[in-house]
Amino acid sequence: MTIPERRFSFAKAALCGALASLLLASCGGKDERKEKADAAEGTVSGELRAVAPEGGFLGEPDPQADTNAVFGGKITLWGGGNPKSLNMWSDLTSFNATICGLMYEPLLELHSTTDDWTGILAESWSVSDDGMEFTFRIRPQARWSDGEPVVAEDFVFFWETMMDPKNLTPVFKVGLKRLERPVAVDSLTLKVRAKERHWANFAEAAGMVAFPSHAWRGSDFNARRFAFSPTSGPYAVGEFKENRSLRMDRRADWWGRALNWNRGKYNFDRIVYKFSEDRVKALEALKKGDWDLYPLYTASIWARQTDFDAVKKGWVAKSRIFNESPVGFQGLAINSRRAKFADARVRRALGMLMNRAEMNAKLMFDQYFLLDSYFPGLWPNRDNPDAEPLPYAPDSARRLLAEAGWTPDARGALRDAEGNPFQISILHSGEDTRHLEIYLQDLKAAGIDASIERMSYASTRKRMDELDFDLHWINWGAGRQNDPEGLWHSSTANEQGTNNLAGVADPEIDSLIEAQKGEFDAAKRRAILKKIDARLLELCPYVLLWQNGSHRLLYWNRFGMPKNPLARFGDPDAVIVYWWFDRDRARALDAARKSGEPLPAAPADVVYRD
Q1: Is 361 a residue whose pLDDT tops 70?
Q2: Per-residue pLDDT for 192 more than 70?
Q3: How far apart are CA 230 and CA 21, in angstroms?
Q4: How sure is the predictor about 44, in pLDDT bands with cuts at 50, 70 and 90?
Q5: What is the band of 7 on the pLDDT scale with cuts at 50, 70, 90?
Q6: In 429, 518, 564, 608, which residue has its Cα 20 to 30 A from 152's Cα atom?
Q7: Calpha distance 136→151 (Å, rounded)
Q8: Among 594, 538, 588, which residue's Cα sits nearest to residue 560?
Q9: How far is CA 53 from CA 59, 120, 260, in A?
Q10: Which residue intervals of 404-499 are DSSP H helices?
C-alpha cells in the first residue's frame, strides 16, 4: 500500500493517513453553549493563525494553501452510511482514510503540485546507491498528544502491526511485505531495506505512519474500531454517535503547526460528519442548513433539484470543480470465485445486458462518460482509443450465455446442464436503486433470476470483507502512482478484506504485474498498465459503468478558500484541509437570509489554474 498524494484520501482507493485520539464524549446543550462561546471569544487555540516558532517555520510552504486562512468555526458534512469502524487499516474505506488522515501522520507525502516528496514526520531522507535501502531522520519536534516524542521505533511498530498474521490488514500487507522489518538505528533514525527491486519501494517506506508503540504494544489491533489514543495529527475525534454523527476537534497543541507546509491548512475548530445513506434526505438537510457542504454524486439530483431559492439568491453556492484529480473506475464487481461466474463469457454477457448509454441519457443527463478502461487516467481525455465501451447487446449476451452452458427452459429461464437456475443477487447499501432496477429488467428478460439484496452500509462491508456476494457496485479511486498488485494479483484473490473483490487470478496479469515491479521508467510502466488494462477488458471482472469529469459541490456561502478550491489533485475531502470559516462571509450570509436579499453568486465552474 503506497502513500497517496496527500495524507488522506483524495484518491478513493488506496490510502495512508494520520489518526488522532478518539475520545467518546457526551453531547447536548453543553456542546451548543461551547460552540457559541467559541464563536464569540475566538478559537480553540486562542489564535487566528499559526504562530511561528522560535527560529521560524520549518521547511517549504504548500503552494495550494492560502496563508490568509484563519482558525475557527465548524463545518458540517455528509458522512455517508454509519461506519462499522473508523480503523482504515482493518476497514479501508475513503471515509475511514479521511478520518485517519486527520489523525496519524506518515514520514513523507507527495507534493501538492509536483511528483516530489515533502517531509511530514521525517525532516530528511536518503536512498542508498543500490536503491534498496532508505534512511529517514525523524523530526525532533514531533510529539504524540500525550507529550511523548515520536520515535523511530513507532514506525517499526507500525510495520509489525500491519504484517502480524493475526491482524486483518491484507491491503497493507501487499506492499509492506516487500520491505524487511525496519530498524530503529537510534531514537530519530529509521532504516528500511527492500527485499526485492520494485519501483514503489521508496513510496511504500515513505508512506509508513507512526503508531504509538509506548501505548499500543501488546493490545489487540483488530479490536481498535473507534478508540485511538494517543495521536500525532491535527485533529482528534471529539464524539462519535452511532448512526448519527462524528465530530472531529482541532488540536490546539498539534506539533505540526511548526511546519511551513501546514500554514493555512486544517483551520476548522470542529468538523462534523452526519450519517445518512439517503442522498435525497442529505440534500434536504443541506437546504435546511443542517449541513454546510454536500458533494453531489447523483446527476439527476444535480440537474433537477439544486436550483432552489437559496441557490438562486447566492446563499448556497452551486459549483463544478475541474482539476487534475486522478480518476478511477466504478462498476459491479462480479465474484468469479463462484462457479456460475467463472466463465469470462458469462461475465461479458452480464456487461452486455447493462444499458449504460440509456441510463446516462435518461437518469444522468449525459453528465458522465462511459468507461472503456480500468485505468482511465492512462488515456488522453480518459478515453481508451484501443477499445470501445462494451455495447448494450441483449441478443449477443444470450448467445454468450448459451455458449457457456446456460440455456432457456420452456419458460425462458436459464438453466445449466444440471438444471440449476441462473440466479444473481446484487448486494447494495444505497437508497438509490434506479439504475439497478433497469438492469434487473434486462437480466430477467434474458432468463436470469435477478434480485437486489439491500443491507446497511456496515453489513454490506462485512459481507464484502468475507467475499460473500454475487455482484456489488463499487467506485474505486485512483492515485497519482498506480500499483495494480492489490486489485488484480492472484495472491490477493482469496484474502479476507482484499481489494481484489472480483477474485481475479490470471497468469497473464500476474506476469505483467511482476514485470512492472522492477520497471523504474514511468513511461514503460504505463505501457505495461495498458497491457494489463487490455487483458482485464477481455476477462470482464466488472460490469463497467461510468465516471464524472468534475466535482459537484453545494455549500453555504460562509467559507473562505484558496484560488484552487480542491487543489490540483484533490477531491471534496480537500475542503477540510484548505478551506476556512470566513467570519465576514458568515455575517453577510446571516444578514442576507434575514433580509431576503441576494448575495453575489459563486462561479458555476471553477477550473484549476497554476
Answers
A1: yes
A2: yes
A3: 5
A4: low
A5: very low
A6: 518
A7: 11
A8: 588
A9: 12, 17, 10
A10: 434-445, 457-465, 485-488
What is the pLDDT, as a whole number, of residue 430?
A: 83
Pairing of strands 74-78, 270-274: parallel
CA-CA distance, 212 to 344, in Å (whole number)?
Answer: 47
| C-alpha cell read off for 357 | 448509454
Dist CA 349 CA 354 (whole Å) = 9
Residue 159: phi and psi, rounded to 5, are -60, -45
- Tell me how far apart the alpha carbons of residues 12 and 472 are, in angstroms, rounded to a whole number: 17
Question: Mind giving me the DSSP string for 313-365?
Answer: TTSEEEEEEE-------EEEEE-TTSGGG-SHHHHHHHHHT--HHHHHHHTST
- Residue 293 neighbours by CB under 8 Å, 6+ apart: 75, 76, 77, 78, 286, 553, 554, 555, 556, 559, 572, 575
The strand pair at 74-78 and 133-138 is best described as unpaired
3-state class (DSSP) for residue 196: coil
Between β-strands 133-138 and 407-408, what pairing exists: parallel, antiparallel or unpaired? Answer: unpaired
Give dist(CA 328, CA 322) in Å, integer: 16
The DSSP-derived string for 62-84 is: -TTS-TT-----EEEEE--SPPS
Which amino acid type is present at position 458?
A
Cα separation, 543 vs 390, whole angstroms: 9
Q: Is the pTM of this model over 0.85?
A: no
Please report the beta strands in 106-211, taking only residues with DSSP state E, as ranges in sequence order: 108-110, 117-119, 122-127, 133-138, 183-186, 189-193
Q: For each of the domains in the chain, give its residue range(s) and CATH number, in order of start.
A: 29-223 (3.90.76.10), 330-547 (3.10.105.10)
**Which has the closest alpha carbon to 501: 373, 321, 333?**
333
User: Is 392 exposed, middle or buried, given 0-12, 13-18 or 19+ CB atoms closer than 10 A?
Assistant: middle
Q: What was the pLDDT predicted at 43?
A: 58
Alpha-carbon gap, residue 359 to 336, rounded angstroms? 26
pLDDT in the model for residue 72: 96
In this structure, what C-alpha cell is assigned to residue 587?
Answer: 455575517
| Neighbouring-strand partners of residue 78 | 274
What the block records as the C-alpha cell of 164 is: 502480524
- The string of pLDDT tens digits covering residues 135-167 is 999 999 999 999 999 999 999 999 999 999 999
Rounded to 5 degrees, φ, ψ at 438 are -65, -45
